[in-house]
């Protein structure tokens, strides 16, 4: 995650920081965490096996409970960097939102911990890797594949919006696939509970809605705009507004000219055009409550929404994995050097993260 007002580069785990210390951070069970108590109560109860992703001030590790042998993803955030980059509010928002979110297509937070050096978020491990990786491997998705993933994302966005939460970080790097190939939204560093509008500039340049760029104030409609960008990218293999310079991207977004490849179906083109409508009042997803207008669109006509929510619809891509802790679907990263345990009692930042 970058400082407010800076564009976020497209890289996995961008909100994520150097290696954790070995202090006995206490585990605070999240409201949505079903089994935190039996997994262990301190950082020492978990073994960090390998890095799954890195970013500006954090790192995600594959972790294993020494008690139950279950695998988890441990997100480690360096406090000093979070404070330096003015991301305290975002990190606290992420923790608060994930601990109350219970949805089959949203990653589950089990518990949080902290010591004098780092913040720790223990989450379910999603072994299928990023949708981004599968999309790059395929080049582009056919209609039925893109439609399946878009539909599951629609249901997750619906859920968040009913709780007055906007995600604000839609992109294939932040969508994981579980062992069966179903989506799991992850990385809620930009998510925020909003009654009507907020004004923070954040997100990934290619996915920003016009109202964010223009600092007009924005609400849940930005997630529907980003969905349109994502559907385009899944079908084409590239986003509709691209430039080597973020400000060039912003200019193209504000200009709003869409160039569709010839193989796009008429229904897909219509859906994308109606999602990528600059006028928030006319944008699909913002016309009826709970995204009903999006679900009712012709491109989604064959979707059984109830069966989808129940995970009864087979996924078009089932990621290969040999065992629950297999990391074959994630890139390999150099492991950080081991650090000495943080100095006990010296923590100038504790009051900023008192809920961890």
TrEMBL record:
Transferase in keyword set: yes
Catalytic class of the enzyme: transferase
Protein name: cAMP-dependent protein kinase catalytic subunit
EC number: 2.7.11.1
Species name: Coemansia nantahalensis
Entry keywords, A to Z: Kinase, Transferase
